[in-house]
Amino acid sequence: MRTSIATVCLSGGLVEKLHACAAAGFDGVEIMDADLVAAHESPEEIRALCDRLGLTIELFQPFRDFEGVDEALFADNLRRAAAKLAVMQRLGARMMLVCSNVATATRPEPEVAAAQLGALADLAADHGVDIAYEALAWGRYVDDYREAWRIVQLADRPNLGICIDSFHVLSRGHDPSEIQQIDPDKLFFLQLADAPAMDMDVLSWSRHHRLFPGEGDFDLTTFLSHVILAGYRGPLSLEVFNDTFRQTDVDRTATHAIRSLRWLYDRTAALNGWEELQLDPPQPPKGIDFVEVAGEDLSSVEQLLSQLGFVFGGRHRSKAVRLWRAGEARVILNEQDRTPGARLAGLGFEVDDAAGAARRAVEIGAPPVFRRTYAGDYELPGVAAPDGTEIYWNSRPAAESWAPEFEGGADPGTVDAPAALRGIVDHVNVAYPWQEFDEAVLFNTSTLALDSEPASELPGPRGLVRSQVMRTADGAARLAMNLAPPTAPLLPRHIAVRVDDAVAAAAAARARGLPFLKIPSNYYDDLDARFGLDPELLGRLRELDLLYDRDGDGSFIHFYTPIVGDVFFEIVERRGGYDGYGAASAPVRLAAQRARGE
Amino acid sequence: MRTSIATVCLSGGLVEKLHACAAAGFDGVEIMDADLVAAHESPEEIRALCDRLGLTIELFQPFRDFEGVDEALFADNLRRAAAKLAVMQRLGARMMLVCSNVATATRPEPEVAAAQLGALADLAADHGVDIAYEALAWGRYVDDYREAWRIVQLADRPNLGICIDSFHVLSRGHDPSEIQQIDPDKLFFLQLADAPAMDMDVLSWSRHHRLFPGEGDFDLTTFLSHVILAGYRGPLSLEVFNDTFRQTDVDRTATHAIRSLRWLYDRTAALNGWEELQLDPPQPPKGIDFVEVAGEDLSSVEQLLSQLGFVFGGRHRSKAVRLWRAGEARVILNEQDRTPGARLAGLGFEVDDAAGAARRAVEIGAPPVFRRTYAGDYELPGVAAPDGTEIYWNSRPAAESWAPEFEGGADPGTVDAPAALRGIVDHVNVAYPWQEFDEAVLFNTSTLALDSEPASELPGPRGLVRSQVMRTADGAARLAMNLAPPTAPLLPRHIAVRVDDAVAAAAAARARGLPFLKIPSNYYDDLDARFGLDPELLGRLRELDLLYDRDGDGSFIHFYTPIVGDVFFEIVERRGGYDGYGAASAPVRLAAQRARGE
């Protein structure tokens, strides 16, 4: 698989973009005309730079509003084309992208477009250039790849073929299976972009909201299967216009981009059974092995855990690390980190093949993390997520692998005190600034093998919070991702522990002096209005400052600890088949946290 | 005119919102149920606070998904309603907003909706509450105010009427003139919101992109005329859901909001000739009197002006202020300001009635600015724009008003040296962070009497820049507004001076040693490809680093000085009827400024 990316996907000047593409490992690039026009380097200098960086110039793009015009405009368009062909010759580019006419076409007949494109192809042939004709989703007369292919067949020139762009095909709902009916010698180029499902005009959708493969709602594995099965032999090239990527660090975006291509090709190969081409297989988590909180002094986190009913699980025999547990929920407090406060620093996942999961992550492009270990310590393979959180995988039970390294705590083999909390990690709530959200979605998809639930939006006192849960189908591992409004600080992260009886857990925690988040009385009046709750349950909820939600399948009772540093804890109980996260109560919780100055 | 605003328009907690509404001068509020639910204050406390602040609780909202349901659900909906009516009684709210059913309606018959709403009205009557029924644009069966009115007529209860929301009427393209056919006693409530013209699903459009009146594309003056002529006697109430306003400072947004209502009512009164109700009439600028740059030490700005060919116009006789001019373009350098750097601090507009323009601005809600003047100095009335820029108005020529206070410069009565620059201010380019953009549009509309050109977007090296020009119809005053991407710093502001011969101006400036922004050679190759320019003109453009654009009406030649502090200058020439701003060259200019580290 050859990889390529359009320079328009990245921020900065052309030279910076090319360096970033090469550093990320791309084989080639599409040079955007506007990027070259704004560059101080001559086409010859750009060509030499690409040579030195080992980047092939796969395409020069776009040439617009060419075909389907009257004779006078056609003559001027050929003159424009000749000038750009001269630039391409200096650049050493061998293929020009011609987009279907949006603005100036007045002749709908395919024969006219074919004749004009044929003349362009003949002119290009003199420069050794191929023409790849692309149907834009909003083209004046040509807005469907099948129509572009018909025109290319009519024109019948050896150096005229078509460019297929996943966005233009899938945004219009056109059937991609017919790509397999196209002569493979005429499939000149392939551009890939994903996008969220949105009901808006297709031009704005394309210009602002394209995403890298794996981040949106398009079925790109099926799409790519059709293109490869059709016999396409060119590069897989990303063309993603997105307001976010245009602003973010060019090297980071390029790394992010190539990860999306590797993931897509892997998924496509897996779908089609192309065994020899796959990465190590994805390892969907079977559970959360541990959650790690780091900071210089975590004694106040320890106090919260103790008040919640967590049991001290011991000190690590060789490091400044402590373990707390509540049944199968394990929290590691790591004081090797000298940063003040407390932050969610790591997540451990239970998988079938930990080494394979880590290999896959590195193959896709995540940097491995190094963790100092001493003789006899159990080694967990891991990588850094884009936001720096360390991800570890374990294919053995904690009690038989790393947990025995912790000494001096309650023996997990014996029975804990009756009031001890017993649970598992239900979900971990992580927050991202808006410009890092899509990258995190791709990481969670490609390396953690999690799937996206539909996104929702919650009104907080500082603006709307976009929330998206990524999870395994069975719910064994769930990450609730929050996207903060641009002007608001990041929301703190939190760890939700699921127990059998949240009301009892709350009562016990209160008895141990846990300061509860005070929930307004109005909230309970509203609960009663909405659900007509049993007065005794309502009384207990009100008394213990518990939050409640209900859907057709069951109900949800939960409460929050205060925030320490940048983390806090939530205790949740799921009754019946309730599968949500209490989103309806989130505005109340956010307002209550804000009222407490958190 | 009574003014009101829904608490959902503002950020923060309910108590903060109420204080901000009162401080901005609103007469009343719509209490959003969710705001009350999240508040720690009881309904009685909120009622007492509103009393103390002098705010009427005009409406309690929303009550959702009530009508058009089966019998079992109807019974539960009545139970829900009774609980909310009890809350309203504690709150002292006398009107409940019922939105047309979106989620649970299964009975499309208007008779069913009417019977169920009638029963609700009867229940509400026991609490002394009126029900205002509103057709949401995305209601399941009722999505048109005329259908809501039909149902209200069928139900025929004294305390059941309708609520009209401009968004739900205008977003669907429904004819607002039929509002005049509604019984005025049944027009219970009016909600006002503007919105940009957008092609997207109406629910997302409503939830994220509503704007205050005067900021969007709806014809709200005609809309409001129909409502008032229909005999509506309630308050004008704003209900604007917008991702930006939810995040910005609550007091600033409330001030911004009431300005929009005052402007709208003024325009509506003017449209209908309700003379006694109007503010002072708008004063569209006839030209730009001066531009003021402030800073501690402006000698480097002075050097730029001198190199451009501006003529020194003298020192102010009593202040640390200097005047430079180029024909009718006057730049005031104000060193009374002790902030380092240089910033665009003020704009003077030529109008027919300066005192009236300033009175109108203050009536709408802009704070007047105080400028220290000495005996005999000419006084210019002025106000502060939302971003702090000082706006002044002058109804007399500069030479007969403030300009004679400047001494020791070239006598404006005598002929300047042949190479001196002569021009006028063509436009001023101002930049806003994204969260202040809409507020600036409203200020420019309501107090400067400028109109919006369609917005455009320019790809810059740090992300897309949204650009919108606001101007008088004749172009005598133009503000080009740029909206920076959230993660990018504000673009510097600049002052564009229009001359008759930009090529000669550039040659003269270069001879005086002005450092030009270096434009890439590739740009000129592209100009030639696009326009097939006369080789001599192309050669001059390339030699002098000039930018060029052409449209159907004429052409545009321009160049930029370096940036000093946060300002720079542009010299422009308009040939023929060219009326744009060279937007096609902006990416090249932005990239060139970035390459120079600006």
In short:
Chain A is α/β, with parallel strands linked by helices. Chain A contains 17 helices and 25 strands.
If you had to describe this structure to a student in words, what would you say it looks like?
The structure is a homodimer of 598-residue chains. With 598 residues, chain A is an alpha/beta fold. In chain A, strands 17, 18, 19, 20, 21, 22, 23, 24 and 25 form a nine-stranded mixed sheet that branches. In chain A, helix 1 crosses helix 10 and helix 4 (71-91) runs parallel beside helix 5. Chain A is elongated, with a radius of gyration of 28 Å. At the A-B interface, helix 2, helix 4, helix 8, helix 15 and helix 17 of A face helix 2, helix 4, helix 8, helix 15 and helix 17 of B.
For the termini of chain A, the CA-CA separation is 49 Å
Largest sheet features of chain A = 9 strands, mixed
Low-confidence stretches of chain A: none
Oligomer: homodimer
- Report the strand count of chain A: 25
Mean pLDDT across residues of chain A:
91
| Cα shape of chain A | elongated
Name the chain pair with the biggest interface and residue counts per chain.
Answer: A-B, 58 and 59 residues
- Rg of chain A computed from alpha carbons, rounded to a whole number of angstroms: 28 Å
What are the key terms here?
homodimer; 598 residues; alpha/beta; 9-stranded mixed β-sheet; 8-stranded parallel beta barrel; elongated
Q: Any chance you could write out the topology, listing elements then pairs?
A:
2 copies of one chain form a homodimer.
Chain A lengths: L2 E4 L7 H11 L3 E5 H5 L5 H11 L2 E8 L7 H21 L3 E5 L10 H17 L3 E5 L10 H11 L4 E6 H5 L16 E6 L9 H8 L10 H10 L6 E3 L11 H23 L14 E8 L4 H10 L2 E6 L4 E6 L2 E6 L8 E8 L3 H11 L17 E3 L5 E5 L11 E3 L14 E10 L4 H10 L4 E2 L3 E5 L2 E9 L6 E6 L9 E7 L2 H10 L9 H11 L3 H9 L3 E4 L3 E7 L6 E10 L9 H10 L3
Parallel strand pairs in A: 1-2, 1-8, 2-3, 3-4, 4-5, 5-6, 6-7, 7-8, 9-12, 13-15, 17-21, 22-25
Antiparallel strand pairs in A: 9-13, 10-11, 10-16, 11-12, 14-15, 17-22, 18-20, 19-20, 20-21, 23-24, 24-25
Helix pairs in contact in A: 1-3, 1-10, 3-4, 4-5, 5-6, 9-10, 10-13
